[in-house]
Amino acid sequence: MTTYSGITHRKVQVQSNFERLAFLFMRLTGIGLIILAVGHVLIQHVLSDVHNLTLEVVAATWNAWGWKVYDMLLLAFAIPHGVNGLRNILEDYVHSQQAVKVINVILVIFVVATLIWAGFAIASFDASAVLN
C-alpha cells in the first residue's frame, strides 16, 4: 500500500524588491492622488466659478506657499505614478532585458527632469508680475 502525502514541491520565482516597492508606490500615490485631485477639482471647479478661472486667479492662488506646496505634491505624485504605469505596460510588450533597462533609464531621466522643471516653475512663479 502506498501513501500519498499531498505535498508538492515547486520553485516560485520571487519578483525583485524593486517591483514590490513599485507596487506599493502605485498604491500609496494612488491614494494621495485621489485626495489631492478630488480636492483640486472641488476647489478650482466646484467651489469657484469655472468661467472665472483666469491667469489672475491662478496668480492670486499661487501667491500663497500653501497652494504652491499643494500643487507640487500633486505634481510629485502624478508624474511618477503615471510613468510607473507606463513602465509596467512597456515591460509587458518589450521582452529584451537590455531594451527594458534602456527604457527604464530614459523614463527615470524624464521623471527627474520634469519634476525639476515643473517644480522650479511653480516655486519661482512671480504673482506680482501678473497681479500688477
Structural class category? mainly alpha
- Per DSSP, the total helix count is 5
Largest sheet: none
Distance between the termini: 95 Å
Name the helicity range: over 70%
How many independent structural domains? 1
Integer-rounded radius of gyration: 23 Å
The share of residues in extended strands comes to under 5%
How many beta-strand runs?
0
Return the string of H and E elements: HHHHH
Q: Any low-confidence stretches, pLDDT <50, length ≥5?
A: none
CATH class label: Mainly Alpha
CATH architecture field:
Up-down Bundle
Based on Cα principal axes, name the global outline: elongated
**Overall average residue pLDDT:** 88
By CATH, the topology is: 3 helical TM bundles of succinate and fumarate reductases
Structure description:
- With 132 residues, this protein is an all-alpha fold.
- It has one domain: Up-down Bundle (3 helical TM bundles of succinate and fumarate reductases), CATH 1.20.1300.
- The protein has helices spanning 17-47, 55-61, 65-93, 97-123, 127-131.
